[in-house]
Amino acid sequence: MEISELTLKLILLLIPGSIACIVYERLTIHKSWNSFKFITNAILFGGISYLVAQLIFNVCTDDKNFELFWENLPTKEIPYNVIIKAAVVSVFVGLTATGIDQYKIINSIGKKLKLTNKYGDENLYSYFLNAQDVDEVYVRDIENKLTYHGLVNSFSENDITNEIVLIDVIVYDYESSDELYRLDKIYLSRSRNNLIIELPYKIPNNGKTIESKTETSK
User: Fold this and answer.
1) What is the pTM of this model?
2) Which of 35, 71, 112, 200 has the most CB atoms lying inside 10 A of its own CB?
3) Residues 6+ apart with CB under 8 A from 35
């Protein structure tokens, strides 16, 4: 099957946007993209990458290639030089988009303007564990009658299970709260309804933990 010059140009033009999409997709927590959404986002990220690259190279080097790029866009001419420059810039576009998503900048602006109460695209499990003040937690495994106290190392989720890795772990009996044993690290994978994660209350002045008061996320 032969690829026409115009089709080849279209594929190459999407490279910067695809790179930015891959960076963003790897570094953020969100629902899986289907092919249509990936292509749509690649076009959006690609357009931003070309515009930013044009701004940078026009200011720094007085590069006129980008002006010819927009003029020759409908033609079959392939602007390899422009694509390479935009591909380099697209990495930073993807990182910038990741930062905007990570710190919920758009959502924060919307809340300040009283336009939305939405906290982001991920569900409450990821949102809770991804907060900056969440490090030390209690994980209540009610089904197995155990409580795990440790520091959050990593976590993930899907439609069926929640997964979390803790380090410097103390394992307690759930009912009596007696210490059973200690571990360097533990991996927990449970159904979404079988884990309760609690954040110990910390006194603001000295950071000491009081176990009697917790914030719970299920």
Assistant:
1) 0.72
2) 200
3) none
